[in-house]
Write a structure and sequence with these properties.
single chain; about 800 residues; Rossmann fold; 4 domains; seven-stranded parallel β-sheet; six-stranded parallel β-sheet; 31 helices; 21 strands
């Protein structure tokens, strides 16, 4: 090998007591033992609240009922240097409908997947068929352990033949031997000693063997039947030891107390092998035909045991050619006659043992490891030629959607914007919010590009302005929440509420297509809030306020320009002492910008270029406000911090081909993990606006590309590949949750979508032109260190 092959296994793992955990452990060691240049690691699956002292090869853990863990595991895999993912699949290992949580992981990784299928169902229920078909889709290779499983995959599921490989279940390599040596080691009695082992459950069919024994022990009273294994953990969790107790009661009823032994324990591999080697006969009385593999039966074959089994699929295939004896399900006479035949015909019994042992040489773990490595090589070669994930987002449109205000109008009545909906139907009991009205004004004024468009939006803008005029308190602050009965529900809103109101009013003041009367009213309301703006302490409130004041300041609006209207129309607005002059607004604007810079200096550190120790909500608005501060003042400190923090948000949320927005389930702290859910569309909308501001400032195309990607979050470029925007209605869903999309469609979501759309619309030709990189690459990620050093030098 030219380079080290790195394999990442997914499955349960030792010290968990389950068959697949042992299988994964043995397979890992057989694969890594083939060659020194093979390195293996494990992602271990745990039941809820389980904790294990795992060995060092376990590098990640999934709590199998937490879908977030599957998403995190996918991220871990993509960021790892693993070449191959080897998945151990059995439906019950994973949570969800027919174990479908695993597809959250498989759909999101960019590594070839080799799946070992421990279960294949001949007549599946619809959900199991769907899961199997998806498993086939996401796997480069499917490893099964019998020809029966191959035939099922092809005939029942139409699996491509070139995807399927047969590799037998592995067995330890022991010499062919007699049993007495190991009986002495374990101090076991029994002549003959009959063994059944494995985690105990009703499907084991132990009662069939018990019913067969009285007639056998009447002739061979020294026979001992040893049932080895703890009760299956899930059986014990739901039914306790009821099955074991039933079996023990049946032993007493049949008078077999001296002939049947239950060892209620999970034995480690070496001890287990000693028990198998000590036995004369292995019994496998399973009750279900749909058993596509059995590790217990495989071990018995590999160690050359005489075997009596029911004809489940795996046993039928493995015990052909006189490698064992088959008995119908639940046939106590069949078991009795088979046991007597093996005891009374030692030469035939020994011949059967040798046939099994010789066949088992193909199944030693050493050979299994070589075969898996050969499959890995084939899969890698195929994947490198035809990578499975080329463009997961090829369903996205190649142009921006048209601006559609239908849904915003639906939420607006003659009072304001109804905050929330129930599945798209306005929920009146939630009432109205100044937050939404302020941002609604931003959207409408951004979309006005002519006097005709102003006339079209006149009723909406007038309604929103009326709401804000009514919501403003005598102190200059604003109420936030109003009930559907038109009663304010608070003394005053938060500082953010004030900032969002100023944000909208500033856009009204600066909009040249609106009447001077309505612009004067907006200027008046802002002026009345002067003292409140000066007292702001929360960073996002300052950022919103800065964005509103920037619109006024860049337009060159001054109090003098409205004085004639104000003086001549005494009843046009509520009287106040005077309008605030431009210098005062500018002073507030710069003061807030400086305070954000101070926050950045106090909290930023290596690897954490942010204003606070936690990334929470409305994040990109902080960065955007400083970029706007630079555009107005040309102070390069504002530019440096604005771009550095925006680049930090990019690095924290950009996953290579989509934005993974910081969720509000705990936020993202500098010493913690980034929460995945619940993701709010407001963050994508604000990112788009901030990237457009950055592009307008430094003219770097990466910001225009990022603006497109963040906007396309609404259209399906997100973790769940789910469009949040409804083209038919203009509505936008409220978020992405661990169980899918939040189908409520409130005011904030549609407003932030329209904000982003109107911002990106200005550069639609460039963003969707021929120069756009259709295949997403690392080039859009900022080179943060070089950017910082460049800005500092400037």
């Amino acid at each position: 090998m030219n380079k080290q092959l790195k394999v990442l296994f997914i499955g349960t793992y030792v010290p968990k007591e389950c068959g697949i955990a042992t299988f994964t452990f043995d397979l890992l060691n057989s694969v890594s033992g083939v060659h020194d240049d093979i390195h293996c690691e494990v992602i271990a699956l745990n039941d809820p609240s389980e904790t294990y002292d795992y060995p060092e090869e376990v590098v990640f853990q999934i709590e199998r009922d937490k879908i977030e863990d599957y998403y995190r595991a996918a991220d871990f895999i993509n960021q790892s240097d693993a070449d191959i993912v080897c998945l151990q699949h059995e439906f019950g290992l994973f949570w969800g409908n027919a174990g479908d949580y695993i597809f959250t992981l498989l759909s999101g990784i960019n590594k070839p997947v080799i799946t070992t299928m421990h279960t294949v169902i001949r007549e599946p229920e619809p959900e199991y068929r769907t899961s199997t078909e998806k498993l086939i889709k996401y796997s480069e290779k499917l490893v099964v352990m019998s020809q029966t499983a191959v035939d099922m995959l092809k005939d029942v599921y139409n699996a491509p033949e070139d995807k399927i490989e047969i590799i037998f279940h592995g067995v330890p390599d022991y010499p062919f031997n007699n049993c007495e040596k190991y009986k002495k080691i374990l101090d076991l009695k029994g002549s003959p000693l009959v063994l059944t082992f494995g985690l105990l459950s009703q499907n084991k069919g132990i009662e069939s063997m018990l019913e067969a024994l009285p007639d056998v022990v009447s002739q061979y009273p020294d026979l001992v039947y040893l049932v080895l294994g703890a009760t299956h953990p899930m059986v014990k969790k739901h039914n306790g030891e009821a099955y074991r107790q039933y079996l023990m009661n049946r032993v007493s009823e049949l008078g077999l107390e001296n002939n049947v032994i239950f060892h209620d324990k999970f034995v480690e591999k070496e001890e287990l092998c000693n028990y198998i080697l000590a036995s004369d006969i292995y019994a496998s009385p399973y009750l279900s035909r749909e058993q596509i593999v059995s590790g217990a039966l495989t071990y018995a074959i590999g160690m050359g045991k005489a075997i009596v089994s029911t004809p489940y699929w795996y046993a039928q295939e493995m015990l052909s050619d006189n490698r064992g004896m088959l008995v119908d399900f639940g046939d106590k006479d069949g078991f009795k006659n088979s046991l007597l035949y093996l005891i009374e015909n030692p030469d035939e019994c020994n011949n059967m043992r040798k046939n099994a042992y010789d066949f088992g040489r193909k199944m030693t773990w050493k050979n299994v490891g070589k075969e898996y490595n050969a499959v890995f090589s084939k899969a890698l070669k195929k994947y490198s030629t035809y990578p499975r994930i080329q463009n997961r987002f090829n369903f996205l449109p190649n142009q921006l959607p048209e601006v559609k205000l239908d849904y915003l109008k639906l939420l607006t009545d003659d009072v304001g914007i109804i905050q929330h909906t129930n599945l798209g139907v306005p929920a009146r009991h939630h009432g109205y919010s100044t937050d939404d009205v302020g941002r609604g004004l931003v959207v409408l004024t951004q979309l006005i590009d002519s006097h005709e468009k102003a006339e079209e939006f006149w009723k909406l803008i007038t309604t929103y302005m009326s709401f804000l005029e009514h919501a403003q308190t005598d102190s200059g602050h604003f109420h936030n929440f109003m009930s559907y009965k038109r009663e304010f529900l608070d003394e005053e809103g938060s500082e953010d509420t004030l900032g969002r109101a100023i944000y909208g009013l500033g856009h009204v003041v600066s909009c040249p297509y609106l009447s001077k009367n309505i612009r004067t009213l907006a200027h008046t309301l802002i002026s009345k809030s002067k003292t409140q703006m000066e007292k702001l302490s929360y960073p996002r409130a300052k950022a919103y306020t800065m964005c509103g004041l920037y619109e006024m300041l860049k337009a060159g609006v001054d109090a003098d320009s409205f004085e004639s209207v104000f003086n001549s129309r005494r009843d046009a607005v509520r009287p106040i002492d005077s309008l605030v002059d431009r210098d005062t607004f500018e002073s507030i604007f710069i003061s807030h910008a400086d305070s954000l810079v101070d926050l950045y200096k106090a909290n930023s550190k290596e690897g954490w270029d942010w204003f606070e120790p936690t990334v929470t909500y409305s994040n990109a608005k902080l960065s955007e406000s400083l970029i706007l501060a630079y555009k107005y003042t040309k102070d390069r400190t504002y530019r440096r911090v604005g771009l550095a923090t925006l680049d930090f948000l990019t690095e924290a949320q950009w996953k290579g081909d989509f934005f993974d927005i910081v969720g509000n389930q705990g936020w993202y702290s500098c010493d913690g993990e980034k929460p995945i859910f619940d993701q709010q569309p407001i963050e994508a909308g604000y990112l788009t606006q901030a990237y457009i501001s950055a592009y307008e400032t430094v003219r770097e195309k990466k910001y225009l590309d990022l603006a497109r990607y963040s906007f396309e979050y609404f259209l399906g470029r997100n973790r769940l590949l789910i469009p949040m925007y409804d083209v038919s209605t203009g509505a936008v869903c409220d978020g992405l949750n661990c169980d899918g999309m939040n189908c409520n469609q409130g005011a904030e979501s549609v407003i932030c979508f329209l904000m982003a759309l109107s911002s990106l619309n200005k550069y639609a030709d460039r963003a969707y032109g021929a120069l756009f990189q259709q295949v997403v690459s690392e080039e859009v990620l900022p080179k943060r260190k070089s950017l910082l050093s460049t800005n500092q030098a400037e």
